[in-house]
Structure formats: structure tokens, C-alpha cells
Specification:
Radius of gyration: 17 Å
Number of helices: 2
Order of helices and strands: HEEH
Distance between the termini: 29 Å
Helix content: 10-25%
Number of strands: 2
Largest sheet: 2 strands, antiparallel
Shape: rod-shaped
């Protein structure tokens, strides 16, 4: 996923929570009976563009700090 690369480069900030119990609408699918969660992205809570990401996209002129 693109967010994993952007977060690794420090362009965005991401916040994850425990994915277990985040959603329960996949349990009726074949083979998903014993799965605690569907994917690791079920715990993705927030994505934020930080100042470095804004600078790299040309949204700001300078990065403070």
C-alpha cells in the first residue's frame, strides 16, 4: 500500500490500533471463521500529511524545524 511507503519515508503520519475486533462483517465468508481480523489495515485509524509531505508535494514553500 502506498501509505506504507510514504510513512517509511516520513511523508505522512499514520496511527494504528489493534485490528482485532475492528470489523465483524467478514465472518460469513468461507474460510474466515477463525480469523481474528481480515487484514492488517483493519486497525488503520488515521493518516495525516505532515509538513515534510506537504513540502514534497509542493503545498508549502519551506519546512520549519
Amino acid at each position: 500500500m502506498l501509505s506504507e511507503f510514504a510513512a517509511t519515508l516520513g511523508l505522512i503520519d499514520v496511527r494504528y490500533t489493534d485490528p482485532e475486533g475492528a470489523r465483524d462483517d467478514f465472518r460469513d465468508r468461507w474460510g474466515a471463521d477463525d480469523m481474528p481480523y481480515l487484514s492488517r489495515y483493519d486497525g488503520l485509524a488515521a493518516i495525516r500529511l505532515n509538513p515534510i509531505g506537504g513540502f514534497s508535494l509542493g503545498m508549502t514553500r519551506a519546512v520549519d524545524g
